[in-house]
Amino acid sequence: MDNYAIISAGSKQYTVSAGDTIRIESTDKEKGEEITFKPLMLKNSDGLLIKKQALQNISVTGTVVRNGRAKKIIVFKMKRRKDERKKRGHRQNFTEVRITAIS
Predict the structure, then answer these.
(1) 83's torsion region: left (phi>0), alpha (psi -120 to 50) or beta?
(2) Rounded CA gap, 100 and 28, in Å?
(3) CA 78 to mean position of chain CA atoms
């Protein structure tokens, strides 16, 4: 992982390099469309770039591989001795993105 960047997508941050595939929060992009991220930090052969002025002209591009839904998680709440139980299921939507370039 010689050249990598830290990007923000949704409410999370990801460490990515060219060729990586990441799952981000669902977006309105369709399969095959290009998506661009602004990096928060960049590590390359020149060194470490953190300042906003240095990162102003740099972007991370990726291609949407697919949109889908993750596996179901079960949320179970119980209060002992009160005969109170709640069982809920939840599936989160996601967009899978393959990082093509950091430039």
Answers:
(1) left
(2) 19
(3) 33
Q: Count CA atoms within 13 Å of residue 90 on its CB side.
A: 7
Residue range 60-74, pLDDT digits in tens: 999 999 999 999 999
Q: Are 9 and 25 in contact (CB under 8 A)?
A: yes
Choose among 50, 15, 37: nearest CA to 103. 37
pLDDT digits (tens, 9 = 90+) for 45-59: 889 999 999 899 999
**E strand or H helix at 54, and its extent?**
helix 52-55
| Furthest-apart CA atoms within the chain: distance in Å | 63
92 pLDDT tier (thresholds 50, 70, 90): very high
